[in-house]
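This part of the workshop introduces the protein records we will be handling. Each record describes a single protein and holds just a pair of labelled lines. Instead of coordinates, the fold is spelled out as a row of discrete tokens. To make this concrete, we reproduce a full record directly below:
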Amino acid sequence: MSSDAVKKRKPKVVRNEAGTPETKRSRAEGDQVTERSINPPSFFFSNNSDVRVYNEEVELEDRDPQQDYMLYKDTCADLAKLMAEIQELKSSGAKVGSVEIEERHRQCSVHFITLKKLNRLAHMRLKKGRDQTHEAKQRVDVLHLQLQNLLYEVMHLQKEISKCLEFKSQHEEIELVSEEEFFQEAPAEISRPHVTRDDNHQLTLARLDWELEQRKRLAEQYKMSLARKEKIQKAIEQKREYLSSLQPGLQNIMQASLPVQEYLSMPFEQMQKQAEVARHLPPPLYVLLVQAAAYGQACDKTLSVNISGDVDEAKALSRRPEDSQEDESDSDAEEEQQNTKRRRATVGVQLEDKRKAMLRRHPLSLCVDLKCKDGSVLHLFFYYLMNLNILTVKTKVSTATDLSGAVSAGSLLNSESLLNCLYASDHGKETPNPANRYQFDKVGITTFADYVSDLGHPYVWVQKLGGLQFSSDGAQSELRGSALSASHMEKTMKLLRGRLQARLALHKQFSSLEHSIIPVSSECQHLFPAKVVSGLTRWTMMSYQEFTELGFVQHVLKAGLVCETDLFFMAVVERGTARLLAAVVLNPRYPEVMPLFSLSLHWKGERSGRTEDNLRAMESEVNVFRAELQGPRPGLQLLTNQIQRLCVCLDVYLETESQVCDGSEGPREFPREKMCLRTARGPSRLKPFKYNHPQGFFSHR
């Protein structure tokens, strides 16, 4: 209830001394009842001296709440007592309107009036307490607001004090000369040693004055240098204009001299253009370009090196990052706008994009052409993978004649296997950079071999030609960059040319072998007798899986003499009813590594080198004695000489066998045509497989 409502309900009693006798009598009776329990009421006089006005608020200030409480308890007790007496009177037979009951009713009414007055006083005390509490809260709020204002002012003053304490003068950022140099170089009127040595403030001012004098002197020198620079620039501009006027004439002279350059094999203009493009090559390709060109000029005039690719993209890559920041920001903004219109890419698409970015090539590549005397050319295409920091190579062979005749020679000039094992154990399937393994794990690449067909082979010798060497290489060298490339260039180029010549020679030989012709050159005719009856009837190529399924080659597989990168062939040599199977393993490094033959003879049963000593001796004749079968260097006739030696050994084996296994008489199936000093020797009854030229007989080793 609001204070206004309470004020409206406050009774203002106006009483006078006059009254009827009944009123005076009832008032006297009431005073007798409450004489012991209630204080006299408080009155105040109005302007009219005859009227007294009753005010409970004035009375409230003089009353004690504890006494009112005790009065309340006593009144309640009296009221309960009167009620009990009325109840007893009624129960004893007194009538309702009797004097005793009416007297007690009046006393109860007086008590009720007292309770009402006490109730009003209690409400007035409650309102007064609330008003005092509200006033006290307002005073506290005012004090709290004043406290906050004071705290804010204190904080502001503390910040100002901190700024003043942290203030750094501008002279602290100036690098002044040391005090020793100052006293040595500064004149006495500036240094004033008698003052500055004892006063740090004066010393700082003096050093600043000396710094100002020095800077004025340097500013004068700077102005003089600028004037001299302008004069030099004007002279340079004049000379540049003169040189630019010569440019059209020089270009006409160069165009006119092009036929002369071609005739003299001195392509100056092409070399100049290539040198301009070479500036944008990555370091490994640039090292390879310089060293290959130097080797071609010094040792191999037929070697040529060319740069191919997108020059503009390479220029964009070689630009400095600060020059391309604005372009990148513009392109990024455009990409963001486009991406908002597209669907969100799946995780697989994002991973594939990361793989493509990691396997990205440099836009420029090198093409090295190695020419042979027969007109064939080996094209080597070198690429640089920027994020992997490795070089890869792809190959292509161009020949003067058509080489599509031999079926078994299909993989000899295959770009995927042509350069396998150019150096021992260098298959070019995995990256030689060990850091790439961790890069592959981030984008989910299990092996680099899955991308070799598209990116090229990362052979170790390719890295060395580009001046790259990694910790995974077997033999570490102290050479780096151009020195490392130069140390491997000559040997590698000779191996590449030798590999091409060997594969072309094998291609021609396979074409003859497929037609059952063993091509033996005139330089090697003395290695064999004039008449060889056994002949080659079939020459086919096998896969590695087919080779491993042959029973008579298992000992070769167990010995670890065969790799999946080797080439496998089956040769069939026949004479009469005898049929000799020869499984041939051709190493990629042929003729440096000798082909390996495993034999199985089908004649009166099946025999192999594991079951018969003479067949083992035939394998030894073919596989061991390289010096006798190599022929003229570089030994490109080695394979055909081995096959021819195999035919000769089969003739000796069949002609020196007994006439008939069961001992019955009859004509020999294989008449003896070879002259042998002894047909057999030793407990194992080995046959004479060694041919002696020029005597023309066979003997034991």
In short: Residues 1-38, 322-328, 659-666 have pLDDT under 50 and may be disordered. The radius of gyration is 60 Å.
